[in-house]
C-alpha cells in the first residue's frame, strides 16, 4: 500500500523541479530588480551629494 501512496522517485523529482523552477525565476527577477534599484539609488545619492557639496562648500 505504501508504494501506491508514494509516487515514484523520478516523478517526485520532476514535480519538485517544476515547482522549484518558477521560484528560481522569480528570485532571479527580484535580484535583477534590486540591482537596478540599488544602482539607481547610488546614482541619485551621488548626484545629491555632488549637488550639496557644489552648493554648500
Short précis:
The protein has 57 residues and is mostly helical. Helices cover 91% and strands 0% of the residues. The chain is built from 2 helices and no strands.
Low-confidence stretches: none
For the largest beta-sheet, the strand count, sense and barrel status come to: none
Number of strands: 0
How much of the sequence is in beta strands?
Answer: under 5%
Mean pLDDT across all amino acids: 75
Q: Based on CA inertia axes, which overall geometry fits?
A: rod-shaped
| CA-based gyration radius | 24 Å
Q: Helix-strand pattern, N to C? A: HH
Amount of helix? over 70%
Q: What's the helix count? A: 2
Q: Span between N and C termini?
A: 80 Å
The structure class reads: mainly alpha
Note down, in words, how this protein is organized.
With 57 residues, the protein is mainly alpha-helical. The protein has 2 helices and no strands.
Topology:
Elements: H1 2-5, H2 9-56
Structure characteristics:
2 helices, rod-shaped, membrane, about 90% helix, about 55 residues, mainly alpha, transmembrane
